[in-house]
Prior knowledge:
This protein has 15 helices and two strands. By secondary structure, the chain is mainly alpha-helical. The protein has two domains: 1-83, no CATH class; 85-409, no CATH class. It has a two-stranded antiparallel ribbon. Helix 2 crosses helix 12, helix 4 (95-110) runs antiparallel to helix 5 and helix 13 runs antiparallel to helix 14.
Amino acid sequence: MQVTPWSDAFSGWLIGLGLPDWAALFVVYAVGAFILINYGMLSVLLLIWITRKVISRIQDRIGPNRVGPYGLLQTVADAAKLLSKEDITPNEADKLAYNLSPILAVSGVLMLLAVIPFAPGLTGVDLNIAALYIVALGSIGIMAALMAGWGSNNKYALLAGFRVVAQLLSYEIPLVLAILTVVFLTGSMRFGHIVEFQALTLGGFNLGLGWLGIVMPGALLVFFISSLAEAELTPFDLLEAESELIAGFHIEYSGMKFAMFFLAQFLNAWVLAAVGVTLFLGGWQGPGVGLPVIGPILGLGYFFIKVYGVYVLQQWIRGTFPRIRIDQMMYFAWKVLVPLMIGLIVAQAIIQKLPTPVAIQYALVFIANVGVIAVVAYILQGYFREEQIRTKRSFEPSSLIGTMQVTEKS
């Protein structure tokens, strides 16, 4: 665990009470884990409320407004309802895989909170391989969904489980490559160092505005798009395409087991937003974070404002864009994002080896990232133009007559 004034003072107080060093350290770890786990579980209530309110406003609706002030207790009522639901297990299900998958889905996301730097000195475990830790534990959610599809003994659930492997593993590659660009530029995989790298001082005052997202907007864009796919959000929510797969890999689940999958999904979206803020938007950096006493409080406030702002943006996109087809999704990952990120990494590696000042290297990295954005925009523009032409042709009189003739002959 990272040595901070709070954890050091707490462990010192425990040792002063007569506890041995190992027992005091164990209590500090246990209390930290208890706080993170309970925060993760309870924050989902607020995340669901934000999702409902944002999408309701987009769709010209009011959203939850009856239970509690502004409908804040609506999610609590939903959780109580799910607790009262009957827990059903199919007779032919693989009991171990079926019952273990919801637990893995939630625990895998909760473990990611351990390396998130919430404020200066406020990190569960400041690992020197935090970026690798995030990537490694992200596979637990994929395995949980696949186990749910296999263990349910349902063909629709199994097909959705295969889609998990196809979608999440595909978009995990550009996501990892986007993280790798930050690791290359900062020279560290430790999230604490990455956040500290983004400090911008002026006259000895920390402005906290040296965001890597300004230098690497292309990597930020690819990370954000990939995080939408990893969090199973629109337009990449094909794992739960009701018109094709009923309700996806969790169709056979009920009660709290069903709720645990959605808890993991909402919390995963928040964690990915927190990782994106840490890597590209300065994390807890902001004006005045270097001040004594009040600095950590300001840092915590900056972090939550940024993360919840990104989460609202995720829900804005969720309520705006339609769901794309599976072939379009895979094409975009393998033939657009992955080649672009490989090219960007190669270009950035060459730029950082040039015998030029750091400012010039940053400028060249920025130009390379702008090129990535231009290529993505050009490809999407061409694709949307082709779709528009195809749709227009399908509604031309000649095509409609031909369709009518084929129907009459059949």
